[in-house]
Each structure stands twice: as structure tokens, then as C-alpha cells.
Description:
binds 3-isopropylmalic acid, two-stranded antiparallel sheet, 368 residues, Isopropylmalate Dehydrogenase, 2 domains, globular, alpha/beta, binds magnesium ion
Amino acid sequence: MAVPKGLVAVLAGDGIGPEVMAATREVCTAVEKAYGFQLEWKEGLVGGAAIDARAKALPDETVDLCRSAQAVLFGSVGGPKWESLPPNEQPERAALLPLRKIFGLYANLRPAVLYPELVGCSPLRPDRVAGGFDVLVVRELTGGLYFGKPKETVKTAQGERAVDSMVYETHEIERVTQVAFRAAAGRKKRVTLVDKANVLETSLLWRKVVKGIAAQHPAITLDFIYVDNAAMQLVREPGRFDVLLCENLFGDIISDEAAAVAGSLGMLPSASLGQGSFGLYEPAGGSAPDIAGKGIANPLAQILSVALMLEISFSSPEAARAIREAVAGVIRDGWRTADIVAPGEKSVGTRDIAKEIARRIASGRGKG
Ligand code: IPM
Ligand code: MG
């Protein structure tokens, strides 16, 4: 197999981003050595850090860096320091949304996995999540209410009128649906379309287009669920789902809910993909300013984002598997950061757990 080469743009961002990224890089080094990769890692400014240094959450130089890279490893952005800025300039919105749009990242993969050993971390009753679960939210990321036109606020005789438009075209639905079906093929072979087809025109189009794509994938079962019902079923029995396919806003909400029932946001990676192998990989949790700088943040979401990156952007499923097995191994062996520790147990720091994962990979002990 060809040795993966290329450039990774590393955008650590704010809050816990930099410390989690630093710990993750130790794992990357171990993977590179073990698998003979020749990756170049180049850091760029993003989010509040970029606002402070360059007066812009997504400076042009950062966009250029991402353009020259095969993949972007993203940390997290935002924090109290920048919360008083106008909404359009705040790190989350002014960095993430343009990145998605500029690079055409229309498909967002958000796995929500509850490891059997961490059933106690879920806010759900243990009998509802016994044995853990593994749900994948595939969210459309560059359409719908986030980007549809018109999008404006205008003055009226009575006050103001604001409008956001939920707009979808056939091709936008087709391409993300293909991603969902391909993902399901490597999983439990079930896609559930989350929509509001009893009310929304766009949902009717989604159903029609998704049914058409399903005909090309006879091995995959397709079903449909209204978004309100999906929200309810996720807290009743999350394990009943495999792949949940969602338009942009539904996916935003449903993926946070799936993440919450999986116990800790610090465990969940994500991938944002477009045409070709370029992708942006980021932890699902935010910048967690309350614990930033303490060295206690859970780096597993960032580390698992590297696994997704190696698998998708660098076609290295073996390296990805080694990372996942090392992560599952440390969990099995009782390594716990503060967010997933049981009452009375001792927790380890960000670096400790990353170093242990790196050590296992280096010694070929991914399996723990
Ligand atoms: C997410 C976030 C973003 C979104 C915000 C920060 C713009 O909530 O990635 O889910 O709504 O997409
Ligand atoms: Mg969100």
C-alpha cells in the first residue's frame, strides 16, 4: 500500500483546543512512526485566537493553508472573551460556516457511540442503553436554513421582519444521501431519514430523492421518521437506530441529542466532507472554556477525529483501526478523564491518556 503523504492543516483554535491538539499530536507521531507516514503538520490561526491576532475569525492565510492541505484537523473555537461581538463575527459562526461553504463540505458525519464500559456516563437509565450503542448522524451541512436565500431582516411599518429560508435542490439531497448509504453499507445497513414530511415541502423532496437513491442500494433498509418523533425515540432507545440522515438544522439538533445520550461530548469525533478526499475533522464538543488550561479535558474526540481523517482523507484504514482499538483498550482498562470518571474513582489528565494511547500504538498493542 502507498505510504500516505501530504499536508494536514492544524487549526487548534480556542479553549481546550490547543492543549487537546498538543496531546493528540503525540498520538499522531506514534501512528506516523508505526505506519511509516510522511505527513506534514502545519498550524494555522482560527476562531478567537485569530480574532485577537488578525482581527478575523478565519484569516485569508488560514484559508490558503487549508486549500494547500489534504485535510484539516480542527480543534474548537469560541469562548466568553468573544461573546459580545456581533453574532456574524463570533468565532463559531465566522469560522466554521465559511469553512464549510468555501470547501463545499456538504456531508457531516457525527458518530455517537456509547462504549459498554461507559454506560454509567449516559444520562439515560442503564436498562435503556445496556451494552452501549453506535449511532451515526449524517447531517447535510451546506444547505437548508443555514444558507438558503432570502436570509434577511427588514424594517416594516410595525417593526421588523426576519426570514430564513429552507431551500433544497435535488442534487444537494442526492450527494449527502449517497454518503449516508455508503456509510450504512459498512454498518448495520439501515438508513433512517429524519424529516418533517407532514408539514414541509423540502421534506417531501427529501423523501422522493432518498427513495430514488435507496433503489440503487438494495442491501440497505430505508425508513422514515418525523424529527419530533426521532428526538423522542433517541431518549427512549437510541440503540434502535443505525444511520440517521438529516437536513442541516435537524442534524444540528439531533446530533447534539445523540451525543448527549452517549455520555460525554469529549468522546465524539466528526468529519465534514465534500467531493473527493478532502475533509475537516473536529471533536463534537465545544471549546469548554470552563476547563481550559487545566490539562483535564478529554482528548479522545480529537484523537478519534484523527482516525476518521486517516481513514477518509488518507485511505489508511489500518492506522485508523489501530487508533480506535487503542482508544477502546484504554477505556476497557479503566483510563478515565474527569468527564467520564465514576464517583470516587481517580481520573487522569489530557496528556496521560494520550500518551498511553500513543504508547499502545507504538508497541503494536493497539488491541490493548
Ligand atoms: C455545530 C455547531 C455550529 C452549527 C454552530 C457553531 C454554527 O452548532 O457544528 O453543530 O450550528 O452547525
Ligand atoms: Mg451544533
